[in-house]
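Aim 2 progress update. The chain analyzed this quarter is reproduced below.
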Amino acid sequence: MIESFLLLNNTLGCLCEATSECNQTALCVQGASALFRITRPYWLEAAELTLGDDLTNSVEAFPNCVNDPYCAANTIENCMLRYKKDCNGDGEVNCYDYAAIHKFGSYACVPPVYYDTLRTCLNMVNKPRPFIVFVVIIFLTVLKLCSNAQLEAENPLTDVCLGCLCEATSGCNQTATCNYGACGLFRVTYAYWVDGGKLTLSNESPDSPDAFPNCVNDPYCAANTIQNYMIRYKQDCNDDGEINCYDYAAIHRLGGYGCKAALPPGYYETLNSCLRYHSHY
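Predicted structure tokens:
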């Protein structure tokens, strides 16, 4: 039903404009597809929507969906239903927050570098633009909404924990790639990625030399890698009788076999401040 939409027509149109300039000829580049540059982990998080009779485990299910404007829009809507939050701390959840979540994930959705394009677009929404017509057509379709209960139950880290882990690890540096063998927002190493299931983008082989950096430099794939790693190694590292974000942060930094050692003071202080600040979520 229309009442369930989080993203208005103008919001989706400006998201399209900021992401790819609404290039309708865009297909897959470095694992991100079409108008909205959706990756496979993003699609998986949003309930693996499909076109027609495609099966979700079909090789073509992901590209067929995200290269179709209707299916891509539904995928984004599902993602925002799951991860919506006030990313920029202005007291409301609006297009700027959805744009940040779309670009960087809910755990790293600080103001993104493409805000200028987005803001300019939103200021022009009353002017005739081809992409606005495009998004109006998109929302003539009926959305399929997913149940997130199973997904949430399988993930040991909450969004807040992931966000604070990101902050403590790299300051959520969105330009971080690979340095000294550790990559991306979460500074994931090759050995960590292997223990986390060797997840990949799109249909990339885990044996490809680019599989590791492509995954861990993508916020969604990196987050899924961390969740897998924690499922494997979760334990009460600080012996306080519970397993929570402090334990996961120790495992992330020191490994599953060394997490009882002391954390670097700066890392712990950043993590602790972040978790206390977001304790109301």
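The CA atoms of residues 161 and 245 lie 6 Å apart. The chain has 14 helices and six strands. These observations will guide the mutagenesis experiments scheduled for the next reporting period.
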